[in-house]
UniProtKB/TrEMBL annotation:
<dbReference type="Pfam" id="PF00106">
    <property type="entry name" value="adh_short"/>
</dbReference>
<dbReference type="InterPro" id="IPR002347">
    <property type="entry name" value="SDR_fam"/>
</dbReference>
<protein>
    <submittedName>
        <fullName>Oxidoreductase</fullName>
    </submittedName>
</protein>
<dbReference type="InterPro" id="IPR036291">
    <property type="entry name" value="NAD(P)-bd_dom_sf"/>
</dbReference>
<keyword id="KW-0560">Oxidoreductase</keyword>
<comment type="similarity">
    <text>Belongs to the short-chain dehydrogenases/reductases (SDR) family.</text>
</comment>
<dbReference type="InterPro" id="IPR051911">
    <property type="entry name" value="SDR_oxidoreductase"/>
</dbReference>
<dbReference type="GO" id="GO:0016491">
    <property type="term" value="F:oxidoreductase activity"/>
</dbReference>
Amino acid sequence: MSHTNGNEKPVWFITGCSSGFGRDLAQYVLELGYGTAVTARNPNEVKDLAAKKGALSLKLDVTDQSEIDAAIKAAEEKFGSIDVLVNNAGIGYFAAIEESEEDQVRRMFEINVFGLSRMIHAVLPRMRKLRKGFIVNFSSIGGLRSFPSVGYYNATKFAVEGLSESLWQEVEPLGIKVMLVEPSGFRTDWAGRSASESKRQIEDYAATAGKWRAKVRALSGKQPGDPIRAAHAIVKAVESPNPPHHLLLGNDAYNGAMLKLEELRKEFVAWETVSRGADFPTEM
């Protein structure tokens, strides 16, 4: 990819670097020698990354517009501009739909959807001016297919998918790329540290939402996905001459996405006559 700062190496800006994908991705791009804005709500949690050559540690809560503005300004002043924005910051929430607490759901949307949106709004003016840039939005296999116990989390990721698909249609003619990252289970602390759960649990959902929640919690730290390999895959995709719009990460993500495609195809075909029959009759 070409770089907006005029330097040989690109500048990355990554949200949510205190743990998980954000931390491993920041570590890798810094190892590559790329200028990197390493952000976290608590900068003390990224002190080790901040000490590395090329790093700029910034305090950033994606729900705080003043912190977003300050962080983008600092990064652009330090590096000249931003080549790659990675919207990684996000949280999870375990609860059956009926069990879900509205304040917790709204908080998750505020971070996962509106925080991501604010970051996009913050970088686009400069990227549009330069006719260059790359926006990486973290979704999930849960943005393509839903699971019990994480319905509202799935809803945030479905929202990110829809927003991103519109975005790339709008900005790619201007030279700006957009890519969704859709992981399955990886050995991050998402199921432990980053995902809370409802205080209320209804017995009728024990065999569906309850069972799934217990399964995901039990797998924490033992998931098949390797975050370091994921970081390498993301950089490889961003630097590809033809980057994908959807980057599935992990066998479970790939298999699950293909199964969803097949399920949709079968249902669409089964109801094709009814679907097509809903239009006004065509005139002969």
